């Protein structure tokens, strides 16, 4: 596959953000949210919650981001709900980023890649989140599988959790930070891609100035927007020229408006309006 393909995830991401706006909704069925909706913390509550959110937001959002752990905790029946979330979100026109943060080596990494990125899998999605901390080369099976199936990756780079800098700000043999090395690898994978490469990064919407350019010609997921403190001004401050490639994400700002469908839709529209607004 040519790196400049117009059919890859990067091109679809670029088009989706232009068409629907940058805001990404996390579909995260926390037990507390289920109870706040008047639902039991069981598979029936999970299904009612998750599919109601899909009905409300998937026709509006450029991308949705279910967090796999909140479905896995219910075992095979929870995974069956996740499969429906994926299928119905994609049918509504939203890209699906499955937040799994996998990171392994060799045949295990290949098996994970096939589970999430091969269209033959019932859990096939548009993109997944990955951890690079077994070495960026350990992600090669994901990279090759993503290329083969026009899928995308979002690799942890500069996260907004307090523990992240312990590893991400550490320096490598060249003196650059681990985070910058990750972005350098992604830039190499995305070289020559138009309008955007398919290999993205996770960079928090609340981080301090990283001190280097965050434009690596790839998609950016920016968690921490909204309830966690990130603002549209923060997005513009942090990402600068790369801002058009950024999908800020939030779950609570939208999900706590449920189960009212129109209230959740209004929250999505409001976030997109804020992100598209003047500086």
Your description of this structure?
The protein has helices at 9-20, 31-36, 43-57, 69-72, 75-91, 106-117, 140-149, 165-168, 178-190, 232-239, 252-255, 261-276, and strands at residues 24-27, 63-66, 95-102, 127-130, 152-158, 199-203, 220-223, 246-250. It is an alpha/beta fold and 279 residues long. The radius of gyration is 18 Å and the shape is globular. The model is unreliable at 1-5 (pLDDT under 50).
Relevant terms:
279 residues; globular; disordered N terminus; alpha/beta; 15% strand; 12 helices; single chain
How widely separated are the two ends? 38 Å
Helix content: 40-55%
Number of helices: 12
Order of strands across the widest beta sheet?
1-2-3-4-5-6-7-8
Strand percentage, roughly?
5-15%
Count of strand segments? 8
Topology:
Blueprint: H1 9-20, E1 24-27, H2 31-36, H3 43-57, E2 63-66, H4 69-72, H5 75-91, E3 95-102, H6 106-117, E4 127-130, H7 140-149, E5 152-158, H8 165-168, H9 178-190, E6 199-203, E7 220-223, H10 232-239, E8 246-250, H11 252-255, H12 261-276
Parallel strand pairs: 1-2, 1-8, 2-3, 3-4, 4-5, 5-6, 6-7, 7-8
Helix pairs in contact: 3-5, 3-12, 6-7
């Amino acid at each position: 596959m040519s790196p400049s393909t117009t059919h890859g995830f990067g091109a679809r991401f670029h088009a989706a953000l232009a068409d629907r706006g940058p805001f990404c909704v996390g579909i995260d069925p926390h037990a507390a949210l289920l109870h706040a909706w008047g639902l039991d913390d069981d598979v029936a509550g999970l299904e009612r919650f998750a599919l109601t959110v899909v009905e409300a937001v998937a026709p509006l959002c450029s991308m949705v981001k279910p967090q796999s752990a909140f479905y896995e905790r219910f075992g095979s029946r929870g995974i069956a709900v996740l499969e429906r979330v994926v299928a119905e979100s994609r049918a509504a026109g939203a890209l699906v980023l499955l937040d799994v943060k996998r990171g392994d080596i060799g045949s295990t990494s290949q098996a994970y890649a096939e589970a999430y990125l091969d269209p033959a899998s019932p859990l096939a999605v548009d993109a997944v989140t990955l951890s690079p901390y077994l070495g960026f080369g350990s992600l090669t099976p994901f990279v090759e599988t993503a290329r083969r199936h026009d899928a995308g990756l979002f690799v942890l780079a500069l996260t907004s959790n307090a523990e992240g800098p312990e590893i991400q700000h550490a320096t490598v043999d060249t003196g650059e930070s681990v985070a910058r090395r990750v972005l350098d690898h992604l830039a190499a994978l995305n070289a020559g891609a138009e309008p955007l490469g398919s290999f993205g990064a996770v960079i928090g919407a609340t981080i301090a100035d990283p001190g280097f350019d965050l434009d690596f010609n790839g998609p950016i997921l920016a968690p921490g927007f909204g309830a966690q403190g990130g603002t549209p001004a923060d997005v513009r401050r942090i990402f600068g020229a790369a801002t058009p490639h950024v999908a800020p994400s939030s779950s609570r700002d939208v999900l706590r408006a449920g189960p009212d469908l129109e209230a959740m839709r209004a929250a999505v529209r409001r976030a997109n309006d804020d992100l598209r607004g003047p500086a």
